[in-house]
């Protein structure tokens, strides 16, 4: 039985949340703050956490950090205060699976939690699958639907934020395994020391801290699909073990001699040029052939112009629902033009951020260029000339948001002693996204070269 952990200091709200979950027939346990939640997590299995952000003793962000460190497989949804976009943005950056803006209707809560309970976060705008309209994307989706019917391994390429995970989920939903689990693991986000145990599971006492026998992602995905996200970031040693598991379709938990037969279809994604990764010696060639049976790749968003507006609209609807806004606003033709002209280096993820902010800035009115905070903006740093701002206004807010983002990145870098992988992990973004952001910060003179 899956158990949800509710963390909320306001007793009335906690009760309301409990009622909503009970009505769905979901089982739950509750805590009044982050510290109580940690005690419960140590004692009981939990499938999903829904937590308030502002709480005494230990707040939601601190709890999120601790959960990511000790229970990286448990998705966490944060409930943020109305009007506080920064809290929501920060929650996602720190690795929250999703967020809810208070106050929200019970059905919004259910809608956000259900896909997380079924397997992993619904990667698409809704579980209906990827939003596409451009001929190239339609073709890709048709191909993916055909490949889905086989059990072949699929390797999904594409720049960061293009929708690789969304496509993986679509393949699962189109396959014979659709009613079985879809389990995803981000090989870049989990500390190397935990990756092996997370993938293959472990028996109690297998290593310090292994307090209870735990199935790995492979076992969890039995009968269904396992997505190895950013597979090229996996250490070489683990790649060999992965290859063996794939070839033999069986796994042994760490600390156990018992072999478990598995029936798992494997999908993988990478932002890197795979051939290059093989040539560079960071990715095993035999594993490359094993996973790359059927390669698919998203073109960058700037090369599929036909997707931009349908995606922008769908993303507005998604976030309007989350924020309890009854109707998503229209996009003014001038704003639409601006959206189509931007080069979207961060792809759909960047578009999603822009639409999310636009929704708040527009305050219910149609989306105009004034509400589009598109990143071509530099943070004012002493001694560095300030480039022109794009679009038609909201400069102060743009600068604030950018500056805040850069500060968070710099703080995280400092805390992690400059280590990129750990910094990305702390921020809850992929190493590739971090590399891209650092490059931008460098370009804009916010960081020194090197
Ligand atoms: N075609 C699409 N339809 C709907 N939503 C999409 C689509 N493509 C991407 N998204 C949304 O954009 C965001 C990024 O997508 P996703 O996580 O799949 O990208 P990715 O390529 O796996 O990124 P990364 O390389 O950083 O892991 C998600 O919030 C996802 O819901």
From TrEMBL:
Residues 130-360 form the Sigma-54 factor interaction domain. Pfam families: AAA_lid_14, HTH_8, Response_reg, Sigma54_activat. GO terms for biological process: phosphorelay signal transduction system; regulation of DNA-templated transcription. CDD domains: AAA. Residues 3-117 form the Response regulatory domain. The modification 4-aspartylphosphate is found at residue 52. This is Two-component system, response regulator FlrC.
